[in-house]
Amino acid sequence: MSNNQPQHDQWNDCPAGELSQLANRLNARKQRVRRTQLLGKASAFMLLVACGVFVVGFALDPGGPRYGNITCSECKSHFVAYHANETNAEQMEETLATSMATHLQKCERCRTLFGKTYPGVLSAELTQQSSIPMFAVAGFTPCY
Ligand SMILES: [Zn+2]
Q1: What is the Å distance from ligand 1's center to 49 Cα?
Q2: Ion ligand 1, residues whose Cβ is below 5 A away
Q3: CA 74 to CA 37: how far, in whole Å?
Q4: Tens-binned pLDDT, residue by residue, of the chain (144 aa)
Q5: What pLDDT does 63 receive?
Q6: Among the listed residues 74, 70, 85, 69, the one whose alpha carbon sits nearest the alpha carbon of residue 118
Q7: What are the backbone dihedrals phi and psi of residue 142, each rounded to the nearest 5 degrees, phi first?
Q8: How far is CA 100 from CA 11, 14, 119, 121, in A?
Q9: CA of 101 to the centre of ligand 1 (A)
Q10: What Rg value do the Cα atoms of the chain yield, rounded?
């Protein structure tokens, strides 16, 4: 037997209210842990919902909005051919040219990109006309 061990034969009464304060602190800690876990689960759920919305949105509308029956990515892929068509260098298929004209007329994003890539090529009618309403918010794409 070692004499360094604490002696437990001298017990004193706890000060009044100490046990209830201890219980209150333990309960408060439990609630904090529960709240943190709940917040974590809610965040994970929100992230899952956001990912779901993004995936479904992309699946329904890959390549951006469809104007003139072509998507933005399809439109961009025909920039070179449309430029050649507009400068009378090389004729492109008439249906595709019409689709490109319609898309560039209605899609401000593609029109701006085309205008920067080939300045002065788009007709004044195309560059001045916009289907985007005045109240449109930057980055918002209307659904048609
Ligand atoms: Zn576009």
Answers
A1: 27
A2: 72, 107, 110
A3: 45
A4: 455 666 667 788 888 899 899 999 999 999 999 999 999 999 999 999 998 887 776 666 667 778 999 999 999 999 999 999 999 999 999 999 999 999 999 999 999 999 999 998 887 666 655 544 444 455 555 555
A5: 72
A6: 85
A7: -65, 150
A8: 91, 85, 16, 13
A9: 11
A10: 34
3-state secondary structure string across the chain: CCCCCCCCCCCCCCCCCHHHHHHHHHHHHHHHHHHHHHHHHHHHHHHHHHHHHHHHHHHHCCCCCCECCECHHHHHHCHHHHHHHHCCCCCCCHHHHHHHHHHHHHCHHHHHHHHHHCCCCCCHHHHHCCCCCCCCCCCCCCCC
Distance 13 CA to ligand 1 centre (A): 79
